[in-house]
Design a protein that fits this description.
18% strand; five-stranded mixed β-sheet; globular; Nucleotidyltransferase, domain 5; 11 helices; alpha/beta
């Protein structure tokens, strides 16, 4: 492998981007974070966030960035849309290598260290995947906001704000949950809430999830969180019908939602070995090895 390479793992979602910078041998040099880089928010915005995170990581490592020496492994939300993926690749800087997969795949790599297992990634959006004992990959959910993303932050927020709407109308009591939701979005009446709703993105809805969790004993929030647990269980079942694989709940809501997953799954739940950014770093390592192998083959042919 070219020892001049820098390997960079990128975990990009709808709320933020995490970056892991390593040398050519995979030794970690620095970590950084930046704004969202899920492709559904725009390809140009995604690259801006990735560049910002990479520059910050290089700065923390005390190294001057040089894109031509960088091999990026990216786990991004939205890559299942071929048009977005093609545009993302087209706007890439001149890199030594680029590997792009879904963020749930890099989450799977990180969570189980490349071994068989199931992951349910729960953040701004949601997705789930498994690597079975025969080495086959399987994916469920991940159809995107607003119709999919079950049990995600955006899914919780989209449903939670309905309680605030009903409270403003007098259909339900104006209680602590409704007041917390309205205060968060800066709404004090029907019109101001409608203004927020008209502008609200997936990321904006996801910011309401912590309020739901903070009011977990409220009947409306409790019902919503129980429903999220059922959705997580259905993803696990779809990926592992025989119920034999370890399961990791990942992402920012993985641990907070663990208590709401039905007890039947408890014995199989495991803490992730590593996060999606480190799974993406594995992608970068593979891409660098493949590039080195191709270069070696070309040299052999020329001889």
């Amino acid at each position: 492998m070219n020892t001049d390479f820098f390997l960079i793992g990128i975990d990009g979602g709808g709320t933020g981007t995490r970056v892991v910078l390593a040398d050519a041998q995979g030794r970690e040099l620095a970590q950084a974070a930046s704004g969202p880089s899920g492709l559904g928010l725009g390809v140009e915005r995604a690259w801006q966030a990735i560049r910002a995170g990479c520059i910050e990581a290089f700065g923390r490592a005390g190294i001057e960035p040089d894109w031509s020496r960088c091999v990026l492994g990216c786990g991004l939300a939205g890559v299942n849309n071929p048009d977005w993926l093609a545009a993302f690749r087209a706007q890439a800087p001149q890199l030594a290598g680029l590997a792009v997969e879904s963020d749930v795949y890099t989450t799977l790599l990180g969570a189980h260290g490349g071994e068989p297992g199931v992951v349910v990634a729960l953040g701004t959006g949601s997705n789930a995947a498994s690597l079975d004992r025969q080495g086959a990959l399987h994916f469920v959910s991940g159809f995107g906001f607003p119709s999919g993303d079950e049990a995600s932050g955006a899914w919780l927020g989209l449903r939670a704000i309905v309680h605030a709407q009903r409270a403003l109308d007098g259909r339900v009591p104006d209680d602590a949950l409704a007041q917390a939701l309205l205060a968060h979005v800066g709404a004090h009446d029907r019109d101001s809430l409608i203004v927020w709703l008209c502008a609200a993105s997936q990321t904006a809805y996801a910011t309401l999830a912590p309020i739901v969790l903070a009011h977990r004993t409220h009947p409306f929030a409790a019902h919503l969180l129980a429903e999220a647990g059922v959705e997580i269980g259905q993803m696990i079942d779809a990926l592992d019908r025989e119920a034999v694989l370890p399961v990791a709940l990942c992402g920012g809501l993985g641990e907070p939602l663990r208590e709401f997953v039905p007890q039947a799954y408890s014995a199989r739940l495991r803490a992730p070995v590593a996060d999606s950014a480190h799974g993406a770093l594995q992608l970068a390592q593979r891409a660098a090895e493949q590039a080195a192998a191709r270069a070696g083959g070309q040299v052999t042919k020329q001889r």
